[in-house]
Amino acid sequence: MNFILIRTKLQAIIVEELISQGKITRPFACIFLFWRSTEEDSETVNQYYLRLEGKADRSFKFVQSGRLLQNVARLGGMALRETVGQGSIWFACFDFYPLALAARLVPSVKLMSFDEGGYNINPNSRYYETSPKPGGGLMRRILNLLLPEGPCFYLRGRVVRHFTIFPGQPNIVDETRLEAIAIDWISLLEEKELAQLPENVSSIVIGTVVDEFPNPEKTQQLQSFHAKTADLFLPHPRDARSDEESNSYRSMAPAEALIAEYASRGPLTIYHFGSTAAVSFENHPSIQLIDITP
Q1: What is the pTM of this model?
Q2: Which residue of 85, 134, 151, 202 has the fewest C-beta atoms within 10 A of its own C-beta?
Q3: Buried (b) or exposed (e) across 14-30, using 16+ Cβ within 10 A?
Q4: Do residues 161 and 245 share a domain?
Q5: Whether the bond into 27 is cis, omega within 30 of 0
């Protein structure tokens, strides 16, 4: 059986594509990862989880916070199962300590990976770290003993194949292990939503979670300014405050689907804060990308 770890909407979309292309075959089980609670994600994220759950032979929910040893034990058991089977463990979160530890303890398990987003192609992201996290305590010392260069470095070395939505760009594994996959973003828009999309859109702002920036106040000011001047504002799924903008639009589909649709209608300018969605359209002839990260 294949075990697939999923943490975000983008990951769920990529997994669906891998299944449809026959890269991931049955039987498979979906493992949905949460930080503090299984109720923490938005409806737009949950709809993709539910779709995958309906296709899977089994599904599990892992809460990460405070459950390191429990998750290591559960993943370790799954890894042991795969050493006598024909399946693999599929994942995108290279900084997920329980997976790195389980793989370290079961070195024969086959690991397959796919993109998390911009982390994969940004050499300054945490996925490129080669040192353990600092800190004291017995648990931290044990983690650093088992993974002296951190989980990302270890998992990068163990991956057999990595599937990417960013063809032609350097990724977290060497080129010989990369395989590009194409996603038809527009197909993710339902016909009902297509018929109701705002008209005459030539500029879009992709929102962000301002509290995750070093200067949240300045980031919020920039976001509000551009949101007011653009034709359409797409709030980040985890930023409920941005709904106050008059041109705010929340879609069940990912931002990439809306961008692709509007670009098919004419020239489009995208303002973003280092968004993964923007990276997907770097070479699109009808799209101008403007990074407004402060």
Answers
A1: 0.87
A2: 134
A3: bbbbbbeeebbeeebeb
A4: no
A5: yes
Burial class (CB in 10 A: 0-12, 13-18, 19+), 184: exposed
Q: What is the pLDDT along the chain (294 residues), one digit of tens a residue?
A: 899 999 988 999 999 999 999 999 999 999 999 988 988 887 878 889 999 999 999 999 999 888 888 988 888 888 877 665 678 999 999 999 999 999 999 998 999 999 998 889 989 888 999 988 777 788 888 888 899 999 999 999 999 999 999 988 899 999 999 999 999 999 999 999 999 999 999 999 999 988 888 888 999 999 999 999 999 999 887 776 656 677 889 888 999 999 999 999 999 999 999 888 888 898 899 999 999 998
Structure tokens at 61: 């929910």
Residues 224 and 136 in one domain: no
Torsion sign across C-alpha atoms 272, 234, 93, 185: negative
**Same domain (yes/no): 120, 166:** yes
Burial class from Cβ neighbours inside 10 Å (0-12, 13-18, 19+) for residue 2 reads buried
Q: What domain range includes position 12?
A: 2-180
HSE (side-chain half, CA atoms, 13 Å) at 267: 1
CA trace torsion 155, 157, 158, 159 (10° rounding): 90
What is the number of domains present in the chain?
Answer: 2
